[in-house]
Amino acid sequence: MNPMPLTLLGRQSPLAPAAEQLRILAQTRLSRPFDLRLAESGLRPLQATSLSVFQINVGKLCNQRCRHCHVDAGPDRKESMSRETAALCIEALAKTNIPTVDITGGAPELNPNFRWLVEQARALGRHVMDRCNLSVLLLPSQSDLADFLAQHDVEVIASLPYYRASQTDAQRGEGVFEKSMEALKRLNRLGYGREGSELALNLVYNPVGAFLPPKQDAIEAQFRRELSTRHGITFNHLYTITNMPISRFLEFLVESGNYDDYMERLANAFNPTAASGVMCRSMISIGWDGTLYDCDFNQMLDLPVGHGLPQHVRDFDVALLASREIVTRNHCYGCTAGAGSSCSGAVMA
């Protein structure tokens, strides 16, 4: 199949805007668009079943600039959640019994309100997860960050593309692997990922290329063996996440001529069982400006919750949002291929 006659080069902005990305996704040469596949599986309209995860994306500022990043985060990004919006998030959370707060970015720890959000969520008795790129723990300005996370029993979900330097640095930048190893050792010394400790350390694996992740239990066993043998590092679990055809990874697919093949690969691997368990059915995602989304991926495509529902956290209505109809597009094939993909890894064993 010939690659689509598309280009994201020659742009003035960092990447093609969300509207252009949606146009590319809509024109994908697939035998059946995602919504048709949902209908054939008896899942359309896709609806939420509960709200168990309150995800807060605090912005796009990051100390790294990874090739696969669907957020298009980096050191030059200015989008950042204000204290006013952070307070609205806590106000909305307090009116619910949602048990888990998932804080992401960018590097969420670089937002000046990150620690306040952690403290407030923990004061409400909620479990807090921090999606950490590891190298942020070594920044001079964050020298006490690991201790702060441990003191507040924050679960660390750490992205690590591979257990060897070449693959990790190819995706994340020269020297990132060694920094990641140092950060993991620092977390281990605090008790994270250690047997008998309640401090959870989970890793996230994304493929370094245009293919689906391997079976989660198999790659977890490899990471566990290699990190323990080579570096003395332990962790609790490893989550596999499919690279989504959004932002930088979409750009890579188009410019390398892999876009059509990758989308076809995702579509051919569509799994109705995985589709029935996608993360958007039990979570809500809040953008740095307070806009409400079904998931972090829709957030990056400027697809807020729809169908007449409140679209800002100031108007948060847990009853309406817990049973909402979810906005879907062709990129959703990324979460329903094979064993499925979610913020907590594969949907199916």
Task: Please describe the topology of this protein.
Blueprint: H1 18-26, H2 34-40, E1 53-57, H3 83-94, E2 100-104, H4 114-123, E3 127-132, H5 145-151, E4 155-159, H6 165-172, H7 176-189, E5 201-205, H8 216-231, E6 237-240, H9 247-256, H10 259-268, H11 272-276, E7 283-286, E8 292-293, H12 296-300, H13 318-321, H14 333-336
Parallel strand pairs: 1-2, 1-7, 2-3, 3-4, 4-5, 5-6
Antiparallel strand pairs: 7-8
Structure in words:
The protein is built from 14 helices and eight strands. A hairpin with a 5-residue loop joins strand 7 (283-286) and strand 8 (292-293). The chain has helices at 18-26, 34-40, 83-94, 114-123, 145-151, 165-172, 176-189, 216-231, 247-256, 259-268, 272-276, 296-300, 318-321, 333-336; strands at residues 53-57, 100-104, 127-132, 155-159, 201-205, 237-240, 283-286, 292-293. The model is unreliable at 1-14 (pLDDT under 50). An eight-stranded mixed beta sheet has the order 6-5-4-3-2-1-7-8. It has 349 residues and is α/β, with parallel strands linked by helices.
Mean pLDDT: 92
Give a quick account of the main beta sheet: strands, pairing sense, barrel closure. 8 strands, mixed
The SSE order reads HHEHEHEHEHHEHEHHHEEHHH
Distance from N terminus to C terminus (CA atoms, Å) equals: 32 Å
The rough form would be described as: globular
The proportion of strand residues reads 5-15%
Poorly predicted parts: 1-14
